[in-house]
Automatic annotation (TrEMBL):
The lineage of its organism: Bacteria, Bacillati, Actinomycetota, Actinomycetes, Mycobacteriales. This is Unspecific monooxygenase. Belongs to the cytochrome P450 family. Its cofactor is heme. It comes from Nocardia tenerifensis. It comes from the Bacteria.
């Protein structure tokens, strides 16, 4: 058996706190991989985790027979906020099973078709705001409001804001609450050591934020009308549809946890993906032109007429989205644990050990993706274009039973938004901007501002 490599400056008791930038854990894990190789171990106090950075080793943890979802520190902390929420509950928890069964039909093709018009309306509002705005746009902030509106309106029949009105000065209060809660949840382990002392104030503020978010969710549940004749939204399903297996409805607390889970998991991820995409496309007018040509071909030159089924026909745009999620897998990675003693590459690994698959590194592994793995090149997703890609090499939505339930929702939302934005505007990046990526559970471009120049002004 081989011991896993570990950072040279490991401290007694504290472990590897000097090796990880607590504000950018995934990015510093990726840098460590350059020094320590594709797999290594990190320790923080009593906590140990093995970090996987190559596609080949990521393949090893795919088996659902040998491996299962582990939650890791950020989601374990999030669990204190969304207790029974889908993302945080153990697979064996009957409440996870019930919520999963009740919600799965909410992401079927039929249900997705029902969300399409709402998504179009939200994006159209954003386009109107930008057309009348003129100045540079805070891309991450705007995408965050847009994605929150999409999940709130499509999922819960609720609106937090209108996007064709000027943005609120300090952003939406609900977004600020969620960002603060996520920021607290993603604090590094080293900070945990001060929780009992100066961290107490932060803890009290966090608890107040959580209560406020719960109050917002309770209001949403109370305000949502009964199931209409057509297809129910996500909230109506959770609140009013019995579990097909047990015939029982989800409790009010479980519904509240799911509402918060969807608000959190279903908005930052899509928003950050869109922000990374607009950043990358700002430097690639050639790709933007190809997307526009495809919209011309599929929708006859007017993205507003795109139907649900036509969006799926935008195959090149889909490659753009796949490629941005390869380069910037906004979830950062996922945790796995072996169900029994097994092997990870040539290393023996014990049952229950924590393994973090660092997608930022795996998705740029040159052995799987080729020497230009760091380059934004959507055509690598053309059929047969990346022959060495294996099962674990691309997993932006996680693995198996516990992979992302909102995957189709997110892909449709991101494609639709890009189709509308790229068709309406030329992207003008700030030449002085250099990409800097923040991490609060998800990866997010920091401080990106771009001017959106209406295309019809140029003609
Ligand atoms: C789970 C990624 C959008 C809801 C996950 C997981 C990943 C992920 C990697 C697995 C986490 C783990 O194994 O610990 C993404 C990405 C998105 C996105 C990259 C956007 C580009 C969404 C949206 C929704 C959503 C739009 C809701 C509408 C969820 C939920 C889970 C989940 C509820 C937990 C599923 C379960 O364990 O039962 N997502 N997600 N996600 N996602 Fe997403």
């Amino acid at each position: 058996m081989n011991e896993f490599p570990y950072p040279p400056n490991r401290l007694p008791v504290l472990g590897d706190v000097l090796s990880l930038n607590p504000g950018k854990p995934v990015q510093s894990m990726t840098e460590l991989a350059d020094k320590l190789g594709p797999v290594y171990e990190l320790r923080f106090g009593p906590m140990r985790m093995v970090i996987v950075n190559s596609a080949e080793l990521a393949d090893d943890v795919q088996s659902e027979a040998l491996w299962e979802k582990e939650f890791g520190p950020p989601i374990r902390r999030l669990r204190k906020v969304v207790r029974t929420g889908l993302i945080a509950a153990e697979t064996e928890d009957p409440q996870w099973g019930a919520a999963h069964r009740v919600l799965m039909p909410g992401f079927s093709r039929e249900a997705m078709r029902g969300y399409h018009e709402t998504m179009v309306q939200v994006v159209a509002e954003l386009i109107r705001r930008w057309e009348h705005g003129g100045g540079p746009v805070d891309v991450a902030g705007e995408m965050s409001s847009m994605a929150l509106e999409v999940i709130a309106r499509a999922g819960f029949g609720h609106s937090f804001t209108r996007l064709d009105e000027p943005p609120a000065g300090n952003g939406l209060p609900v977004v600020k609450l969620m960002v603060d809660v996520l920021r607290y949840a993603s604090r590094p382990v080293s900070v945990k050591l001060v929780d009992a002392t100066i961290g107490r104030i932060a803890l009290l503020r966090h608890r107040r934020n959580v209560s406020e978010l719960q109050r917002i969710a309770d209001n949403l549940i109370g305000d949502c009308p009964p199931v209409p004749a057509g297809s129910p939204n996500l909230l109506q399903r959770m609140r009013d549809t019995p579990d097909p297996d047990t015939g029982q409805r989800l409790s009010r607390t479980v519904v509240r946890d799911q509402v918060l889970t969807f608000l959190i998991a279903g908005h930052e991820t899509s928003a950050n993906t869109l922000t990374f995409a607009l950043h990358a496309l700002g430097d690639r007018p050639d790709i933007v032109e190809r997307v526009r040509a495809e919209i011309d071909a599929v929708a006859g030159g007017d993205p507003a007429t795109l139907t649900y089924d036509q969006v799926a026909k935008l195959q090149f745009l889909r490659r753009v989205v796949d490629e941005i999620l390869r380069l910037w897998p906004v979830a950062g990675g996922y945790f796995r644990r072996p169900k029994q003693d097994t092997y990870l590459g040539e290393h023996r690994i014990g049952r229950g050990a924590w393994v973090y698959v660092n997608l930022l590194a795996v998705h740029r592994d040159k052995r799987a993706w080729g020497p230009d793995a760091d380059r934004f090149e959507p055509d690598r997703f053309a059929p047969g274009a990346t022959p060495r890609r294996t099962a674990g090499a691309y997993k932006p939505f996680g693995i198996g039973l516990r992979s992302c339930i909102g995957r189709q929702f997110a892909i449709h939302e991101v494609m639709l938004t890009l189709a509308h934005v790229l068709y309406a505007f030329d992207l003008e990046p700030d030449p002085k901007y250099r990409l800097s990526v923040d991490e609060f559970v998800t990866l997010k471009p920091a401080g990106l501002r771009m001017r959106m120049r209406p295309r019809n002004q140029l003609r």
